[in-house]
Amino acid sequence: MPMRVALCGITVRFGALTAVEDVSLAIEPGEVHAVVGENGAGKTTLMNVLFGLVAPQAGAIRLDGQDRRWTSPQDAIRHGLGMVHQHFMLQESMSVLENIVLCAEPAGRFGLVDFSAARSRLRRIAEQHGISLALDRPVARLSVGERQVVEVLKMLYRQAEVLILDEPTSVLTPQEKDRLFATLRSFRTAGKAIVLITHKLDEVMELADRVSVMRAGRLVWSGRLSQTSKEEIARGIVGGALPPARQRAVRTPGEPVLAVRDLEVAGRSGAVGPLSLRVHAGEIVGIAGVAGNGQGELIQAITGLAPALSGEIALCGRPVTHLDVERRRRLGMSYIPEDRQRMGLALGATVSENANAGRDDRRAFTRGPFLDRAAMARFASGLIERFRIRVGGPSALAATMSGGNKQKLVVGRELARNTPLVIAENPTWGVDIGAIDFIHGELMRMRDEGHAVLLVSTELDEVMALSDRILVMYAGAIAGEVAGTEADRETIGRMMTSRAHQALPEVA
């Protein structure tokens, strides 16, 4: 049954940090309500209040006019709310069906789980909304897009009438995004209320019925999409004029910093490669491609996270194919990983401890055998200020930060190492407009100062805006190369879905 939701005067504080201040918001059935804002603006925190993950210091939740106070997310779920988090919460060793019914198992004879009843009910739900997914497959074998479908099915199985999705397309391919949006339109037609937390304004303009803009914990504007424009939303997010488009200065690249020759590495469905590429000092080489075409395996082999089956990797003229991660980093490699949760940060450690992880100048923050906590905090404070990281301070736990601020901490730490080679893997995933511009500017600065930058991104606009040369990967191979000055979406788009000889025009 369609349900009206209202958040009234919500205030949330984490110590000295006010994450949400006196925010009131109405969520209507049969609408897609986009909530946008900078990293740390309070979007996710506000929705975590609605879902029962965070208890507010002030304010109320109203469902169909009645005040509610949740004791847990399970309480919110029982009242028809569901949430898909930015980082999925699935058990990889279990099947799709087992994940969906977990903690909501239908009881059969003798108290056993009635999987047959659950399967029949899920098939009806999937058919109703045009969803297709094998229920017996282990989650570990699913793509990112398929895992998101599992999370959505979990909500529907629990009869959610209000669906909250936090950055749902941040790691999806264009095709997966289109399928997700078709499903969300089906939900809207069925009268469900959908809350979309996102940084991608093109998606807001494509899907949303209503938009709410948050900045520094406050609601600065809320209304129907038809009453505003993409430019006005962007200005509301950043609190002023948008930054101008960045221009690449023309420069002659220097000597090769990274050289990869005939590299092969194990992939999900066979070997990736052989791959050969070079990245010179003073240039950004971008790798474009639909996710899952071997980019991840290539980066794992270059950074030392996965062994090479064959081929050679050289860094600053020295062979590193058989060196471990630490020795490659000491030779001059920084790495901004795609997964900030599992690889980029230790969430249980402080911001200060994370900021200083992997630093080469260890004498600067040690006193004999002991850590110099004051020096570590000063360095972390510098990163917080320079990269505009919204957090309670160096002593705050990394787990308390929003996803975008976690990303800025990882980017700041790695760029501060000032190494000859920077590998940036989806460096602006889940960050806001202002932060994207700042991170792009920092990568450009590294390039202009003579560093080599290898950029891997599923955002084609990002690759085209930053890269001096663009390599396109398809089916585990490099489909072709395009100069940054000659790149266009149509040519690269064709190369992303076909071999180079099919994508590039014939030479007369």
From TrEMBL:
<dbReference type="Pfam" id="PF00005">
    <property type="entry name" value="ABC_tran"/>
</dbReference>
<keyword id="KW-0547">Nucleotide-binding</keyword>
<dbReference type="InterPro" id="IPR027417">
    <property type="entry name" value="P-loop_NTPase"/>
</dbReference>
<feature type="domain" description="ABC transporter">
    <location>
        <begin position="5"/>
        <end position="241"/>
    </location>
</feature>
<dbReference type="InterPro" id="IPR050107">
    <property type="entry name" value="ABC_carbohydrate_import_ATPase"/>
</dbReference>
<feature type="domain" description="ABC transporter">
    <location>
        <begin position="250"/>
        <end position="500"/>
    </location>
</feature>
<protein>
    <submittedName>
        <fullName>ABC transporter ATP-binding protein</fullName>
    </submittedName>
</protein>
<dbReference type="InterPro" id="IPR003439">
    <property type="entry name" value="ABC_transporter-like_ATP-bd"/>
</dbReference>
<keyword id="KW-0067">ATP-binding</keyword>
<dbReference type="GO" id="GO:0005524">
    <property type="term" value="F:ATP binding"/>
</dbReference>
<dbReference type="InterPro" id="IPR017871">
    <property type="entry name" value="ABC_transporter-like_CS"/>
</dbReference>
<comment type="similarity">
    <text>Belongs to the ABC transporter superfamily.</text>
</comment>
<dbReference type="InterPro" id="IPR003593">
    <property type="entry name" value="AAA+_ATPase"/>
</dbReference>
